[in-house]
Amino acid sequence: MRVLEFIREKTEQLQKNNAEFRAKLEPQFKNLSDKFSQTVSNTLNNPWVSLFKPTDDEPHEEKPIVQVPEAAKVYEELHEQLNQETFVGDWFMVDQACINQFAAVTGDKQWIHTEPERAANESPFKTTIAHGFLTLSLIPTLTDAVNSENNPYPGAKMVVNYGLNQVRFPFPVKSGSRVRARTTLVGLTPMKRSIEVVNEVSIEVENSKRLACVAQTVLRLYF
Fold first, then answer.
1. How far is it between the farthest Cα atoms of the chain?
2. What range defines the domain where residue 10 resides?
3. Is residue 106 part of a domain?
4. To 10 degrees, the CA torsion angle through 80, 167, 136, 152?
5. Which residue spans within the chain are E strands per DSSP?
6. Is residue 105 part of a domain?
7. 120-161 per-position pLDDT tens digit
8. Is the four-CA dihedral 181, 184, 187, 190 of positive or negative sign?
């Protein structure tokens, strides 16, 4: 009997201690829970946090861009040409006089561009080569963009050169070579009163399989 009483006494004591322990911890857990909830609520309501866009799996509505009629019409016409070759230019001679003029304007007079005799002896190309930026700067001429009588965007009131996405010079242009450009429309972004047009321009060298330049040009058409 003493053993049973001892077990019953210890059991009651243990239950009492557990009750007292829970009574002490519950207020602390409640305070921590309240503080955590308040912190999360303050963070989500912070204006800085609200700048983040919801993830793709969360439903959200995007306001449609309402274009002016002139822009909408040109956008529809251009959209039909997306990812298609839209232009092939004429051959253009890059001779030593052209290279020298570019060197004089830019101040880049390295012998690989401007000294034919030294280039013939020391250059692996055995001749002078055009500056990469010279090839790049020829894009308006090679794509006929400077011809006012051949405007590819007649509906636009103003066409602005917005910049370049990327430029590469895979192969040099030797002095005396002819080059031409091919243009492919690769990007089109509608805006309210304008359209952003991205063209990939590939500059070929006559009798060569390698391209001299590949550049993505960005234009803004304003209406």
1. 119
2. 2-51
3. no
4. 10
5. 85-88, 92-94, 158-168, 177-190, 194-205, 211-222
6. no
7. 999 999 999 999 999 999 999 999 887 777 788 888 899 999
8. positive
